[in-house]
Amino acid sequence: MLSEYELRERIGSISETQKITGAMYLIASSELRRAKAAFDQTEPYFELLKKDIKRIFRCLGDVDSRYMYPADGSHLTDGRYGILLITADKGLAGAYNMNAIKAAEKALSEHPDSQLYVVGSYGRKYFSAKKVPFAENFEFSAQSPTLHRARKIASILLSDFEAKKTDKIFVIYTHSKNDAVTEVMTERILPFHRGEILGGEQAAAESFKFFPSEKEVLESVAPSYVCGFLYSALTDSFLSEQRSRMSAMQTADKSARDMLEELDFEVNKLRQSEITREITEISAAARYQKDKKARIRGALKG
Hints:
Elements: H1 4-59, E1 81-86, H2 96-110, E2 115-119, H3 121-129, H4 147-162, E3 168-176, E4 182-190, H5 194-198, H6 214-301
Parallel strand pairs: 1-2, 1-3
Antiparallel strand pairs: 3-4
Helix pairs in contact: 1-6, 4-6
């Protein structure tokens, strides 16, 4: 059993940890408000971009482009995958990082020849420790996403795609469904599949005139779509990270409170035992003195 001194040392240590988790909760709460504002501004832009892409695809004819799946709607089953994984720059966010990493590991096990790109220091450190190769000189932060950063990431991915280093581009990120639920998403952003984008919608009754050509319009729109998608995924992931961190800090704070209550109970129990022992010793000493005096009086009478 621990001594009272050791128990108080542990109480002090847990109290200091509780201060740290409390501070991290407040920081995550502040970051969450900023991330929520950024995401709320990004979502309408991306939704409008998707509507414009749908309008183009409703009127697009059979275009022979690397950005498109075959016109017959079939899927390409071969080719090298480019996998972009979005993690955080740090841990202490519950299962946020590991859930995304597990999805990436699953994709890599199914397609071992894939080219892996990692956003966030946590993911890069993890795969470095596991000696899993990933794109070098791709050291983008996950903190406070910007459109400029999304453009730079899109430029690298598109450059490798156009150079035929990759044949498909997938993004693995964490989607924040609501304040309590997040889920890992794995989505293909290139090449485009007409049926998936239109979602069963029919071709438009009237067509647009594409200038200078359908193919050039498509290849002009594709980079903007990829950039918009990546910015949306980065802001969504950052929002999910802050929510996960707040939840993790709340859980840690509750665990710390429970441990402090238990340790306080142990200290009180130990002190009560000590008081009981002292009272018992005093009572025993008093009885001994009383018996001693009685024996002395008995001896004097005799």
